[in-house]
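pipeline/complex-builder :: batch 7 item 3
reading input block
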Amino acid sequence: MSAQKRGIIKRVNSMLAKKEISCKELTQKYLDEIKKSELNAYISLSEDEAMASAENVDKKISSGEEVDVLAGIPMTLKDNISTSGIETTCASKILRGYRPIYDASAWKTLKDKGAVLLGKTNMDEFAMGSSCENSCIGGAKNPHNTGYVTGGSSGGGASAVAGNIAAYALGSDTGGSIRQPASFCGIVGLKPTYGSVSRYGLIAYGSGFDQIGPLTQTAEDASIIFDAIAGYDPMDSTSNPNYEPNSYESLNNDIKGLKIGIPKEYYDGVDEEVRKPIEEAMKVYESLGAKIEHFSLPEVKYTLPVYYILVCAEAASNLARFDGVRYGYRTEHYKDINEMMCKTRSEGFGAEVKRRILLGNYVLSSGYYDAYYKKAQNLRKVIMSAFYEAFKKYDVLLTPVSPTTAFPANKSYSNPQEIYLADICTVPVNTVGIPGISVPCGFDSKGLPIGMQILGDKFSESKILNVAHKYEIATDYVNNKCLDMGVRL
Amino acid sequence: MISREEVLNIANLSKLYLDESEIEGAQKEMDGMISFADEINKIKADCENLPELGGINNAFHDDEIKKSCPQSKILENVDGGKDGYFYIKKFN
């Protein structure tokens, strides 16, 4: 570990503006480090596009043109975010060779600001998993200890940012897929409110749960990215037409008098090593003038099965489009159209994806729809209602991100549900549609990072980013250290 | 326990093949998944008198003709297709 300063966007922006380094030199440094890296964080590189964008930014800077704070910053996208002309596979064999014909809106916004895309990052296939190991190229590795998983599903992005082979990453979070890998890799991960960032071009897993968000070194960086990508997009009918984010301005707001709720059910079954630093963080907040109050939110207990029923049902419907006709993989030998589709899908999808499609179609099938899907939809409303009530009393909630730190790579499980339990602290946010941010708050005895989660009411990203930033400043980033690898600036 | 026929029916609805060696495993796995999902049927919550949650409205847009994607571009992902169509091999 070294004392390198945290937060990279403003720093790189200033280096480029002062011409201490050219954007092409910087991009080359990142590409060289990616090629040397053993983290398996990337699925594909977009070298030519990256160098062309970098050259463009250099030209603008040398001609004295004003550029955006994100111009020239080398970054990466999860491989389920569509990039026009650049292969997008969702880490699945079924999408091998697929080149989208349009850009996802979130990426288009960054591209227009001059962002430099280094490549696409590793993930659990179709974002289904909590370890990144359900990837067709094998899991990404945790930069803090390569014998451990990165978490998932945005594991490649988390690994790349923590390992300094990308300045920041965009991931997607359906049930914790940004926050949990951020926590396991010791970085910041923001899952925005449902409807705040356009999902146009994000290959759908659970359309009622998915959100694109940033994985960054600090809350300040997350705030810069969030402000850039959030806002109304006519291409996504679920994006909020009235939301104009400006979280950066309130980042340093005083938090004196802030009411922080501690929902006790989140802490049941959480490792002592994970719980301790979060309790320390509560003391930090108290010293900043916030009020801590413990309360009960029993609905959290049954969110996990509700979430899995609904998300698998949505996944089964969303993934019906992969039939081998229009893009991606197609089986070689077939006798008729049904066999072509069935063989394509059976050969193209991995085990976890098939498992979720089967469960999804089961809960949607005649005879079971009422008992599972409809009941889960109703319970979702009960859970939402309980959280809305909580936010009448508290400004934010403070919880763990995961009951444990990163688990060992290649660990075997007795059944698939065992690994679903790892999502217990993250799925409520998606079920309710609220924002949540994972912030590094310590290390366990093995030196693996621990994250805490700050939850806010709908469209309160400014508030949770402010609360996260205040903690980082108060603790001088002591729990959020830069690893001695990758690009050092 | 979920029957072999039910598993095969769901696989068929999902357009997935299960070969003979996979069926028993899939049956066990689905059984586990269903017991996990069954947890919700133990929950006693008042689902009838839910408060209006609000904030959910239909998103209408103006009925305007917009530019669509060129056919040739869409067919790039299947090596250009054939005569402007997606092409799969002929079968009887």
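note: The CA atoms of residues 193 and 434 of chain A lie 5 Å apart.
queue -> next item
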